[in-house]
Write a structure and sequence with these properties.
single chain; about 190 residues; mainly alpha; Tetracycline Repressor, domain 2; 9 helices; HTH-type_TetR-like_transc_reg; Homeodomain-like_sf; Sco4008_C; DNA-binding
């Protein structure tokens, strides 16, 4: 009796293994043989689905971005809470930040230029612009810069910069992010 292959399940296992590998080692350091072993597939199968390591990285990047966009939609009526929810998402899925950092370091942020990301950011900037035009949000910063600042605040470090190793707890950092976003929005 022949075993029926489930291509969708195989692709999902490959993407999960590739996400862990790329988050840990970056693009240059990632190894397809480790991804194959972790996913229970083989290198030939991975290349049949994704053709190259860069295309596999793109698939991982796309999947993470789409999940993030769906899980944390922008809320211009409460940008502080949006930032806090985005921070929560980055804490829950730290690989998102790491994959984004590897994309920036090794590829000059090519992943940020894919249509799904561009469209999501275009939508967020348009929402912020409309809220500013209705005087619901401060127009101190142009919409794209405001979005960049809000997102940057969600990526504060868990350890103090003085090297003491003291950790701030999640709730403190979350509240600090909300307070900082609210400070940005003051007229």
């Amino acid at each position: 009796m022949a075993v029926k292959r489930d291509a969708q399940a195989t692709r999902l296992r490959i993407l999960e293994a590739a996400t862990a590998e790329f988050a840990r080692h970056g693009i240059a350091g990632a190894r397809i043989d480790r991804i194959a072993q972790a996913s229970g597939s083989n290198k030939a199968m991975i290349y049949a689905y994704y053709h190259s390591k860069d295309q596999l990285f793109d698939a991982v990047f796309d999947a993470l971005i789409v999940r993030n966009m769906n899980d944390v939609p922008v809320d211009v009526h409460d940008l502080a809470e949006y930032a806090a929810r985005l921070f929560d998402q980055f804490q829950k899925y730290p690989e998102v930040f790491r994959i984004g950092a590897w994309d920036a370091l090794e590829r000059g942020s090519v992943g940020m230029k894919i249509e799904a990301v561009v469209e999501a950011n275009r939508h967020k900037v348009a929402e912020i612009r409309r809220a500013q035009e209705k005087d619901l949000l401060s127009a101190t910063f142009p919409p794209a810069i405001l979005l960049d600042l809000v997102i940057a605040l969600t990526q504060i470090r868990p350890l103090l910069m003085d090297g003491s190793g003291q950790q701030t707890d999640h709730a403190q950092r979350r509240q600090a992010i909300k307070d900082a976003v609210n400070a940005l929005l003051r007229h």
